[in-house]
What we know:
Strand order of the largest sheet: 2-1-5-4-3-8-9
CATH architecture: 3-Layer(aba) Sandwich
Domain Thioredoxin: 2-157
CATH topology: Glutaredoxin
Structural class: alpha+beta
Pfam family, one: AhpC-TSA
CATH superfamily: Glutaredoxin
Number of strands: 11
Family: Belongs to the peroxiredoxin family. AhpC/Prx1 subfamily.
InterPro entries: AhpC/TSA, Peroxiredoxin, Peroxiredoxin_AhpC-typ, Thioredoxin-like_sf, Thioredoxin_domain
Order of helices and strands: EEHEHEHEHEEEEHEE
Organism: Bifidobacterium panos
Strand content: 25-35%
Amino acid sequence: MALLQHELGEFTLTAFHNGDFCEISKKDMLGHWSVVFCYPADFSSLCPTELQDLAAHYEDFKKVGCEIYSVSCDTHFVHKAWRDAEQSLSTIEYPMLSDPTGVLVRDLDAYNETSGMAERADFIVTPQGAIVAYELTLPSVGRNAEELLRRVQACQFVYANEGETCPANWRPSGETTAAPKSS
Length: 183
């Protein structure tokens, strides 16, 4: 399924956030840029490295007006137990969404029906709730928060500057080019 410009469907999920359980819904993602960061499972070997990397760069995402929402099909109780047990996750400040029925990850076409887990995928979402970029990787390949942040910034730039494009390796205040005109 092509997901570019797909508007997030309605959902309400329980999250573990700042030591408490809370509800997060689609409306909480509106009004600001969001990254929905799906990962297969808590208590795995690769996933904590990614969530720790995101935690280390969380303030950089916040500075550009972007909230991070990590999502797996584990329960919110498992998220809490994992964060409490794994010292490397103690710095996580972003919401860890629990999607045990797969309502959000299915909407994002990131649910693995065979394993019952989320795929390793991330989605950049506009303040209006539309997906403008996404990446899906093998379960054995970790992602890089700095590159994800660069992609967020590039999406924000072209969103605010219609007709401009960001070339490979673009960074904020880097050179852009005009988009080709359609005939």
